[in-house]
Amino acid sequence: MTSRTAQNGGHYGAIVVGGGQAGLSASFHLSRAGIDHLVVEKKTAMHKWRDERWDAFCLVTPNWQCQLPGHPYDGDDPNGFMVKHEILGYLDRFKAKVKPPILEHTAVTAVERHAAGFRVETSAGSFTADAVILATSLYGTPSTPRAAERLPDDILQLHTVDYRSAEALPPGAVMVVGSGQSGAQIAEDLHLAGRKVHLATGNAPRCARFYRGREVVDWLWDIGQYNITIADDGMGKKRHDTNHYLTGRDGGRDIDLRRFAQDGMALYGRVKGVSGGRMLFEADLTSNLDAADRVYNGINALIDRHIAEKGIEAPPPSVYVPLWEPAEEPAELDLAAAGITSVIWATGFRPDWSFVGLPIFDGTGYPVQRRGVTAVPGLYVLGLPWLWTWGSGRFLGVAADAEHVVEHLTAAVAAPRQLMAQAG
């Protein structure tokens, strides 16, 4: 069944907190293992995909990488990029296959130790479980800097989760703050709609869409980049990396901020404050663009080495040469004089682990775990970027991580039950 009326005080083999792709992947494997469980979701299953994506949203990885458990991509364009309604259809079909025992519109307020297991307090009552899987991801609460409080009242402010289209904004220029995947794609969406766009950049890297005759993701798959784990040398810092910006729009293409600038988009360094109706910027625009290009060329060089080592016939290599250079580093912008009527904060999210009353976090607030297994027996995390591999937080890798977590959970839950049976 796809919804559930859970009894207050009920006990389960496992409780899954979060009903996104990670939570439902856990449910899939828990059902296959025969473990009675409950998925608790604050809103509705997969709501972020439905309610927190703009109208022109599409995947940035090819459709063939959609590999949810028991539900590989089932369309007719594996090398394409699903748009929003296609993604929702894919996820709806996944949910229908899983039939998760899910309690929606229910907030988890506490996860604590209880006897040999856990007590999970929710807005629908209290439950107990032998194990708990935290599948709430890092994309919890939209984050905006305190500088937002000092913007003039007549400027509309939105986080990326609330942006839908250029047409939904008031007339005028738009400031997009942040050049990660969402910020860069929304800036492009506004630019294509004919809006004057101002973009405050950050340290996000970029990647080519196609190189030497193939989709870059396909090259990286062949090279083995998607098999590298967080346990490999030097990969620990990847957990905090910003995603590369590129797009699957219109069949896929690069996003080149320098080309946007050539076409009239105004670029700035990182926002450092707001004062007197002016937005203030760091003098790091040039270094931000150069750093993104170094990553772009570095990925292409990795592909070049692979092609040479394997003796693969392919079009000749190339190195990206900047199309545009900043004439200056703008220190500030008078928002009213620039005609800016909207500011879109593409400044990420803050994870919300406040309900977890157990010692599993490091000094940065990130859960300490190895492929989802924490030091607290019976407590697991799932769906985080680089939980184990590059694909862990995506449709590509979450199935394998969920299977690993449930295998560990099954063994951990079975052991004490076997001891009790022997004692009985």
TrEMBL record:
The keyword Oxidoreductase applies. Keywords: Oxidoreductase. It comes from the Bacteria. SUPFAM superfamilies: FAD/NAD(P)-binding domain. It comes from Ancylobacter defluvii. InterPro entries: Auxin_biosynth/cation_transpt, CHP04046_FMN-dependent, FAD/NAD-bd_sf. One of its GO terms (molecular function) is monooxygenase activity. Transmembrane segments: none annotated. It holds the Pfam family Pyr_redox_3. This is FAD-dependent oxidoreductase.
